[in-house]
Amino acid sequence: METSIQKVTSKGINLKDALPNASDYTECTKHLLPLMDTMDLLSGRWKFVILLALWFGGRMRFKEIQRNIPKITGKVLSKELKDLEEHGILTRTVYDTSPVSVVYELTTYGKTLDKVILALREWGVNHRKKVLSK
């Protein structure tokens, strides 16, 4: 029996074949919930930029992240970091120093997003070529 993974071809995925139990839109939507959850988590102007800053910078303090992303406000950065922490993508460690220092770092789980980001980048490169060639 062929699995949905084996149905991936060089031309892409036929969603009807990859989701054989999705006989209608409602059923298909249930199968795509994990994708919608992922897109919801990563959506927004700053999530990818924050993730990349932490990938390349490693453990970073709040101000270091903010310096690496010049146009982000402290309020927005704080909100996005909290959201990523709540989803287990990064850790926030508070050190009892004077003044208190807080360090952010990608979790092992957060680092598993590398393949997702690279796949989205590849699609984006191809899409830009297509759009710009018109």
From TrEMBL:
The keyword DNA-binding applies. Residues 28-132 form the HTH hxlR-type domain. The lineage of its organism: Bacteria, Pseudomonadati, Bacteroidota, Flavobacteriia, Flavobacteriales. The chain crosses the membrane at residues 44-62. The keyword Transport does not apply. PANTHER family: TRANSCRIPTIONAL REGULATOR, MARR FAMILY. This is HTH hxlR-type domain-containing protein. It comes from Flavobacterium cyanobacteriorum. Keywords: DNA-binding, Membrane, Transcription, Transcription regulation, Transmembrane, Transmembrane helix.
